[in-house]
Write a structure and sequence with these properties.
It is a single chain. The chain is α+β, with helices and mostly antiparallel strands and about 500 residues long. About 30% of the residues lie in helices and about 30% in strands. A 7-stranded mixed beta sheet has the order 3-11-12-20-17-16-15. It has a 5-stranded mixed beta sheet with strand order 24-23-25-26-27, sandwiched between helices. A 3-stranded antiparallel beta sheet has the order 5-4-8. Strand 13 and strand 14 form a beta hairpin. The structure holds glycyl-adenosine-5'-phosphate (GAP). Glycyl-adenosine-5'-phosphate (GAP) binds next to strand 12, strand 17, strand 20 and helix 9.
Length: about 500
């Protein structure tokens, strides 16, 4: 199966993951809203990243800085001068393109060899009839393109009631700068010793000229960034500290994506060539993922040297240094920056999880999310919604489990259909309450107080006592083995269509 972006866009809308922003007004350009399941998935990604890279580590702390920063931050960082893309406009249809992206799109051609008939030619190719290559606007096929001009990607706004040049400020285009300008506050308030890192997850804004490909490149997105400060005069295992920590962060980030489900075959590292390195970087690697659009950047991990702290020291007039007690010297730390996009991570996890398979002659769409990522952990389903006792018990189970996890109750279809719905949104486990669970009170039966747990991936079922549900899910949802649970509790007797 070759997965297309259209399949993911359609599933995302149908099942409440991602909607086009302001859709009823025709949508806003390349801005997306996360729906009820999308917000759970996104929060899980951010929570796991924070847990693994901040909470679990004694060398990491976090901040949550304001989006609106002092405009001089962006002068010091180089964004006012250099955060630009080359842009060209069509003189006919006025469409605007990134100059370096024009040839990466299919182009319209009125072919002189066929009396001017219109054809769409694949990106980068010549017309097979007349041999011409694209020179005009790829969208209308008629207009000349202007020469390239630099276009700054930052969104401008005004601070305060007066809309003049002095009040201009920017929506942050990256979360990183807040870690640099708060370096001293954080280091001193927390008495941190090098090496240590500051993490932040939050919104960033870029007025991309050619955004697109669903949530891959948008104008408003979220980043999870770490600035890891190291002493450039130290060595670790015989290597300069910055180079050692750069490699360590690359390995840790790769391991993190693998841990939550991205497969080896869909992940790779790409080293930046010297001529594409950002002005501040000594070395940068991208972690690339094989998205439905092909291999593309998932995150970057840069060695930014002491560039940022020195720039902010210069522009602010403050000394942003660290006192090395051992060497009795002030040093400007080097910075290793693992910078990930939340939306791109979500897209990668979604693409990786998506599978279509045939079950008893029918198509089953299943999102095989890692249980810790899954938006809903457990769905509680009554086998018969007309039996009051069954429905009451199912609601009570949902209430109990919801103290720990996101759990839903659904009785709006027959059980086979309910299972398929949960498969399609990646719910790892369903709990089914049936007559055997509650017994028949008319006949004076107690019921066995057991429910059926159904595993999303194997579609196997086990019959588990109600009192064991919380510990069983505590195990299963944190990496516990389904086979062990199935072995311990045995197969379900009253298995409904899996
Ligand atoms: N502080 C460094 C920095 O911002 P970047 O490579 O520009 O580096 C880091 O951005 C990550 O943020 C990217 O790898 C990507 O995952 C995400 N990102 C950047 N621009 C984006 C956009 N327009 N839409 C969605 N995600 C974006």
């Amino acid at each position: 199966m070759s997965l297309t972006m259209d399949t993911l866009v359609s599933l995302s809308k149908r099942r409440g993951f991602v909607f086009q922003s302001s859709e009823i007004y025709g949508g806003t350009g390349s801005v997306w809203d996360y729906g009820p399941l999308g917000v759970e998935l996104k929060q899980n990604i951010k929570r796991l990243w924070w847990r693994d890279f901040v909470q679990m580590r004694s060398d990491m702390v976090g901040i949550d800085a304001a989006i609106l920063m002092h405009p001089n931050v962006w002068r010091a960082s180089g964004h006012v001068e250099q955060f630009t893309d080359p842009m060209v406009d069509c003189r006919e249809c006025q469409h605007r393109f990134r100059a370096d992206h024009v040839d990466a799109r299919p182009w319209l051609h009125f072919c002189p060899a066929t009396k001017g008939n219109k054809f769409e030619i694949p990106a980068g190719e010549a017309c097979p009839r007349c041999g011409a290559r694209r020179t005009l606007c790829p969208d209308c096929g008629k207009g000349e393109l202007t020469t390239a001009r630099n276009f700054n990607l930052m969104f401008k706004t005004f601070m305060g009631p007066v809309e003049d040049a002095a009040a201009v400020t920017y929506l942050r285009p990256e979360t990183a700068q807040a870690m640099f300008v708060n370096f001293e506050n954080v280091q001193q308030s927390m008495r941190l010793k090098l090496p240590f890192g500051i993490a932040q997850a939050g919104r960033s804004f870029r007025n991309e000229i050619t955004p697109g490909n669903f949530i891959f490149r948008t104008r408003e997105f979220e980043q999870m960034e770490i600035e890891y400060f190291v002493n450039p005069h130290e060595t670790v295992e015989g290597r300069p500290a910055d180079e050692f920590w750069h490699d360590r962060w690359i390995a840790d980030c790769m391991a993190w994506f693998r841990r939550y489900g991205l497969s080896e075959a869909n992940l790779r590292l790409r080293e930046h060539e010297p001529d594409e390195l950002a002005h501040y970087a000594k070395r940068t690697l991208d972690i690339e993922y094989r998205f439905p659009i092909g291999w593309s950047e998932l995150m970057g991990i840069a060695n930014r040297t002491d560039y940022d702290l020195k720039q902010h020291a210069k522009f602010s007039g403050k000394t942003l240094t660290y006192f090395d007690e051992e060497r009795k010297e002030h040093v400007v730390p080097y910075v290793i920056e693992p910078a990930a996009g939340v939306d791109r991570a979500l897209l990668a996890f979604l693409a990786e999880a998506y599978q279509e398979e045939e079950v008893r002659g029918e198509k089953r769409v299943v999102l095989r999310f890692h249980p810790e990522l899954a938006p809903v952990k457990v769905a509680v389903l009554p086998l018969l919604k007309k039996r009051e006792e069954i429905v009451r018990t199912a609601h009570a189970i949902r209430g109990e489990l919801a103290k720990h996890w996101r759990v839903v109750y659904d009785d709006t279809a027959a059980i086979g259909r309910l299972y398929r719905r949960q498969d399609e949104v990646g719910t790892p486990y369903c709990v089914t309450v049936d007559v055997q669970t509650v017994g028949d009170s008319d006949k004076g039966e107690q019921g066995d107080q057991r429910v059926t747990i159904r595993d999303r991936d194997s579609m196997q079922q086990a019959r588990v006592p109600l009192r064991e549900l919380v510990p069983v899910f505590q195990d299963l949802l944190t990496g516990g083995d389904w086979a062990a649970v199935a072995g311990r509790f045995g197969a379900a007797a009253a298995a409904a269509a899996g």
